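pinging the channel bc i need a second pair of eyes. not urgent but kinda urgent?? the chain im working w is below, pasted from the shared doc
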Amino acid sequence: MTFYFGDILPYLPVLLHALWISVYVTLIGFAAGSVAGVLISLARSSGVRALSAPAGVYIEIFRNTPLLVQLYLIYFGLGQVGINFNPFWSAVVGLTLNNAAYTAEIFRAGFESVPAGQREAASALGMSPVQNFRYVVLKPAVRNVLPSLTNQLIVLFLFSSVGSVIALPELTNELSNINSLTNRTLETFTYGAVLYYLVSVAMAMSSRLAEKTLFRW
């Protein structure tokens, strides 16, 4: 058996476009999920049972069920009750809901890492609760958990490959299509592995750069 990677080169534009879709849904899911994660984390730590209990249940459900099953429920399950999402929005909703559960726990650890005395000092200086949270709690917390958030972003990007099961034209889906056309499994998925690796490395390097510039203080 001979291996020839040149057979896959004509499909490189298709792979790059599919890679962009993978990155795009990941960034949307991560951004929206992170905002939701902050709110869920605050609800869980609020001490108000009406807020903390549902937040805890949400985190437990989405952290302890596979993303693939969640996507099936969103794409196929909701369709049975008349709620229809196309593959793109199904993937975005699934990644957002899944990511929110994980980032909620990440942010909770970050918020708890900020010394209570620091928050008390801000209150003593006359800061409102919103100002206290924004300037005294949120920024140091994000700085403390940035490596964990970066890891979650990379994991979410890699998990976006499950979008192929609902016909989302992302990278893994196109790799499967090209493989069926060329019958070059090793060559095709080697290209895919390299693309996934390069983007993951770029995300990690961007995080380190952000840590040095945005959090220089």
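so The chain has one domain: 5-213. and The CA atoms of residues 59 and 104 lie 8 Å apart. — does that match what u expected or am i reading it wrong
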